[in-house]
Amino acid sequence: MKNLTALAAGAALLASLGLASAAEIKVGIDNFTFNPQDVKVKAGDTVVWTNNDDIPHTVASPAHQIRSKPLDTGDSFSFTFTTPGEFKYFCSLHPHMTGRIVVEAATGDNGAK
Amino acid sequence: MSAHDEDHGPSRRKVLECMTWAGTGVLWTVAGGVPTAVGLLDEAMAQEVKGFTFLQISDSHMGFDKPANPNAKGTLEEAIARVKSAPGNPAFMIHTGDISHLSKASEFDDAEKIISQARLDVHYVPGEHDILDDEQGKLYRDRYGRGTKGPGYYSFDANGVHFVGLVNVVDLKGGGLGHLGNDQLEWLEDDLKSRSASQPVVVFAHIPLWTVYPEWGWGTEDGAQALAYLKRFGSVTVLNGHIHQVMQKVEGNVTFHTARSTAFPQPAPGAAPSPGPMKVADDKLRTMLGTASITFRQNEQRLAIVDTPLKA
Predict the structure, then answer these.
(1) Is B95 within 8 Å of B80 (Cβ atoms)?
(2) Residue A56 with chain B: CB contacts under 8 Å
(3) C-alpha dihedral, B1 to B4 to B9 to B12, nearest 10°
(4) Which of B112, B129, B85, B74 is nearest to B241 (CA)?
(5) In angstroms, rounded to a whole number, what is the distance separating the alpha carbons of residues B310 and B312?
(6) How far apart are CA B152 and CA B142, in angstroms?
(7) Which residues of A touch B132 (CB under 8 A)?
(8) How far apart are CA A54 and CA B104, in angstroms?
(9) Lowest model confidence (mean pLDDT) among B207-221, B277-291, B298-312
């Protein structure tokens, strides 16, 4: 599991905000595709990408300063989305691979969706 | 610029009439600057190939150990052993990228250890797998980038042929293809500007400069701009890797050619849900891996590209 620090930071932030436990959303990377390609989350949720291909991929969104290390087979990358908005991303090795995370404002009853 | 400057006028140029290929490879000839396939190359003809020859090796993927080829190191060693025992006297080798699988120092070390056994100068360009370090290619540039510009592009002359190594794997944009960028394109335009149109040009880069299959990212979004600068030249050969299979196309005076990998095959465009390492039967693997040899015959204005698999 890469980027434990990001997770920890996200968790700390959530704790300080007193929010209910945030969700963890999984996105697979299969056959050069982010799966699912379009994901809706609430602010505070963490998205975990896992590469299931036999070739490395990355998760990159330069506009939002998101850049995973290269993920070899079985590697994961986590990012906690704290700000609402639309986050388009792609694989910086294979840029035809694109995906999108839409982050909605946390409503307070985050865990109950 | 020397002997190649003599004028091979357009009247001597022949249009490509036919193209034949199968099995071990194709023999290309260039009459007055236009490549023409003259037929299937068999081993006997390969023995006769004389003139200025260089080799292309690609996609070594040191560090790759997945089912499609658990021993990519071993197949690179086999490829280099074949290079050493090949007929002719190659002047040097070009490597069209993906030397490593994950840009690790140990992977570059392994590649160096094996490839240097060929005892040939090697001119490299990076693949996207070679710039995965935190500083996006510093390891590559430290090792292979001496005398190059930006992320590692450069040109040189050998035996009257102008060689240009381009980098189309950095700063890729979401939803896009391979990318050269304005700085590199300006440099290329400048690099070619003062050259005689009769000088043969060889351009090499990792991702195909032509659009092979955009659905899989197999193309370069600003490749057409680079090709525009090359249009006036009588003989242009574009050598790429990345797709791990032999593909060729001739457009006007430009011959496009991609080389096999020494590590693992990939499916033909559209023949699978996605690109990526393709597992084939063990006894078939070596027929899908290999290297290429390119020969210029100065006096006859002939160019031959021969693809040699590790196993026929």
Answers:
(1) no
(2) 101-102, 129, 132
(3) -160
(4) B129
(5) 7
(6) 10
(7) 56, 69-70, 93
(8) 17
(9) B298-312
Q: What is the DSSP letter of B159?
A: T
CA-based nearest residue to A37, from A113, A106, A103, A102: A102
pLDDT in tens, B127-178: 999 999 999 999 999 999 999 999 999 999 998 899 999 999 999 999 999 9
CB A36 within 8 A of CB A22: no
The string of DSSP codes covering B244-283 is: SS-EEEEETTEEEEEPPPSS---PPTTSSSS-S-----HH
Strands B34-40 and A85-90: unpaired
Inter-chain residue contact A95 with B101, CB threshold 8 Å: no
Nearest chain A CA: its distance from B46 CA (Å): 35
pLDDT computed for residue A13 by the predictor: 54
Confidence of residue A8 (pLDDT cuts 50, 70, 90): low
| CA dist., res. B116 & res. B108, Å (int) | 12
The encoded tokens of residue B142 equal 């430290």
| Beta bridge pairs of residue A25 | A47
Backbone region of residue A69 per phi and psi (left: phi > 0; alpha: psi in -120 to 50; beta: other values): beta
List own/partner pairs for B20-24 with CB under 8 A and 24 or more apart.
Answer: B21/B248, B23/B312, B24/B306, B24/B307, B24/B308, B24/B309, B24/B312
d(CA B176, CA B189): 23
| Torsion on CA atoms B62, B66, B68, B74, rounded to nearest 10 | 40
pTM for the complete prediction?
0.84
Strands B254-258 and B236-240: parallel
The amino acid present at B301, given as its one-letter code, is Q
Interface ipTM = 0.81
**Mean of all residue pLDDT scores within chain B:** 85
- Asked if A72 has any chain B CB less than 8 Å from its own CB, the reply is yes
